[in-house]
From TrEMBL:
Residues 8-80 form the Concentrative nucleoside transporter N-terminal domain. It is a multi-pass membrane protein. Keywords: Cell membrane, Membrane, Transmembrane, Transmembrane helix. Residues 210-417 form the Concentrative nucleoside transporter C-terminal domain. GO terms for molecular function: nucleoside transmembrane transporter activity; symporter activity. It comes from Ilyomonas limi. Its main location: membrane. This is NupC/NupG family nucleoside CNT transporter. GO terms for cellular component: plasma membrane. It is found in: Cell membrane. Belongs to the concentrative nucleoside transporter (CNT) (TC 2.A.41) family. The chain crosses the membrane at residues 6-22, 29-49, 93-117, 176-198, 210-229, 266-289, 301-319, 360-380, 401-419.
Length: 420
C-alpha cells in the first residue's frame, strides 16, 4: 500500500509542478522522463546493488573519521573547558567531550579546507565536469545547468554558481531557475558531514541516505524546474560542458587558509541561525499555547502541531508509514519554513521521533536540502554579487526556485521510498 502511496506522491509532485508551469506546451517530456529515470537509477544502485551500497557505507565511515580529525583541532583550541560527562560529573572537553557549537564548527571548517585543497589541485572541478557531462548526455540540458546542479551536490549554493560565473550573465531565465533550484535542492558537503555525524551520534545511519539525496537532487531539480519554466530561448552552452580548471589560490597553504576562513563564516552563520530561529520558535510556541488555552485549557497549540496537519498529505503521499506520518509532516514543515538544520536536530535528538526505517529513509532525503525561505534571500544576494545585472531576474525567480527545490527533494524521497 505504501508503494502505491509513493506512486500517488510522484503524480502529486509532478502535478503541482505542471500546475505552476508558465508554458505547458513547451515542456520537454524527454528531459523529464530521462531525469526521473536517472534518479531511479541512482537509487537502485545505492539501495539494491550490494557493491555500490558497500561503497556508500564506506563513505559514511569516512565521514565519521573526518569528524574525528576535526575534533583534534577543536580539542587543541577548547582543551581545558569542562563539559558534562555521560553518567554525571565533569570532564575536560579534550578528553572526548561533546559541545554542539564546538564540534559542528570544527567539522565544517575542516571539510571546507579539504574542498579548497581539492579545488586548488583541480580535483573538484574534474569530478564535477565528469558527472556533469554524463548528466548532460542523458538529459540533454545545457552545460551551465549541468555543471551548476552537479557542483551543488559538493559545495554550497553560492559556491556552485562561482563555477559557472562566466555564463551567468548570458544564461536564459529557464537556465537560471534550474541552477537556483539545484542549489536549493542539494546540500553542501560540509553540512552533509555534520548531519551524518549527528545521526551517527544518535544511532541513525544517515550517511548513505544523505549522499544519495544530494546526488538524486541534481537531476530532480532539473526535472521540476524544466516543468515549471520550460526552455524557450537558445542557450549559449547547450550540448557543451566546459569548466575552467583554475585555482584562485596561490598555493596549498593559501587554499587551506581561505577554506578554513570560509568554513568558519559558514559555521558562525549556522550557529547564529539556530540561536535566532529556535528562540523565535520558542516565542511563537509560547504565544500559540496561550492562545490555544483560551479555547481549551488542555489543548497545546504549537508550530509542530500546525506543521503536522498542513504537511500530513505530503508525508502520506510520499509513502511514509502510518505511524510516522505525523512526525514526518512536522519535520517537512520545520525544514521548509525554518531551516533544514532545525529539522535534522529534531530528527537526531528524537524530539520528533521517526520509528520505522522506511520513514527514516524518506524523511531524511526529503529534508536534505537548502530549500527554505531564508536560503532564497541568501541565494539572491550571493548570486547577485556574482552577476549584478541579473539581480532582478533572481528576485523574480526566487520563490519559483524554492518551490522547485522543495519538490525535487520530495521527488527523490518518494522514489527512494518506493524502492525500499
Amino acid at each position: 500500500m505504501e508503494r502505491f502511496q509513493g506512486l500517488i506522491g510522484i503524480a502529486l509532485i509532478l502535478g503541482i509542478a505542471f500546475l505552476f508551469s508558465n508554458n505547458r506546451r513547451r515542456i520537454n517530456y524527454r528531459l523529464v522522463l530521462s531525469g526521473i529515470a536517472l534518479q531511479i537509477a541512482i537509487a537502485v544502485l545505492v539501495f539494491k546493488v550490494q557493491p555500490v551500497a558497500a561503497f556508500f557505507q564506506w563513505l559514511g565511515r569516512g565521514m565519521q573519521l573526518i569528524e574525528g580529525f576535526a575534533f583534534k583541532g577543536a580539542a587543541f583550541v577548547y582543551g581545558g573547558i569542562g563539559v558534562p560527562k555521560t553518567g554525571g560529573g565533569i570532564m575536560d572537553y579534550a578528553a572526548g567531550g561533546f559541545v554542539f557549537a564546538f564540534n559542528v564548527t570544527a567539522t565544517i571548517i575542516l571539510v571546507c579546507a579539504l574542498v579548497a585543497i581539492f579545488y586548488h589541485y583541480g580535483i573538484m572541478q574534474r569530478i564535477v565536469a565528469l558527472i556533469a557531462r554524463a548528466m548532460n548526455f542523458i538529459m540533454r540540458v545545457s552545460g551551465a545547468e549541468a555543471l551548476s546542479n552537479v557542483a551543488s551536490a559538493f559545495v554550497g549554493q553560492v559556491e556552485a554558481q562561482v563555477m559557472i560565473r562566466p555564463y551567468l550573465q548570458g544564461m536564459t531565465n529557464s537556465e537560471l531557475l534550474a541552477s537556483m533550484s539545484g542549489s536549493l535542492a542539494c546540500i553542501a558537503g560540509g553540512i552533509l558531514v555534520v548531519y551524518a555525524n549527528m545521526g551517527a551520534a544518535a544511532g541513525l545511519d544517515l550517511a548513505p541516505k544523505l549522499i544519495t539525496a544530494s546526488l538524486m537532487a541534481a537531476p530532480g531539480a532539473l526535472v521540476i524546474s524544466k516543468i515549471v519554466f520550460p526552455e524557450t530561448e537558445e542557450s549559449q552552452t547547450f550540448g557543451k560542458v566546459k569548466l575552467e580548471v583554475k585555482s584562485n589560490y596561490t598555493n596549498v597553504i593559501d587554499a587551506i587558509s581561505h577554506g578554513a576562513g570560509d568554513g568558519f563564516k559558514i559555521a558562525m552563520n549556522v550557529i547564529a541561525m539556530l540561536i535566532g530561529f529556535i528562540a523565535i520558535i520558542a516565542c511563537l510556541d509560547y504565544i500559540l499555547v496561550r492562545t490555544g488555552h483560551i479555547f481549551n485549557p488542555h489543548f497545546d497549540l504549537t508550530l509542530d502541531y500546525i506543521f503536522g496537519k498542513i504537511f500530513y498529505p505530503f508525508a502520506w503521499a510520499m509513502g511514509v508509514p502510518q505511524q510516522d506520518i505525523s512526525s514526518a509532516a512536522t519535520l517537512l514543515g520545520q525544514k521548509l519554513t525554518i531551516n533544514e538544520f532545525v529539522a535534522f536536530k529534531s530528527l537526531t535528538d528524537k524530539n520528533v521521533p521517526v520509528l520505522t526505517q522506511k520513514g527514516l529513509l524518506i524523511i531524511s532525503i526529503a529534508i536534505c536540502g537548502f530549500a527554505n525561505f531564508s536560503s532564497v534571500g541568501m541565494q539572491i544576494g550571493g548570486i547577485g554579487e556574482l552577476a549584478p545585472e541579473r539581480r532582478r531576474d533572481l528576485a523574480r525567480l526566487g520563490l519559483k526556485a524554492l518551490l522547485c527545490g522543495t519538490l525535487a527533494s520530495y521527488l527523490s524521497a518518494t522514489i527512494a521510498g518506493i524502492l525500499m
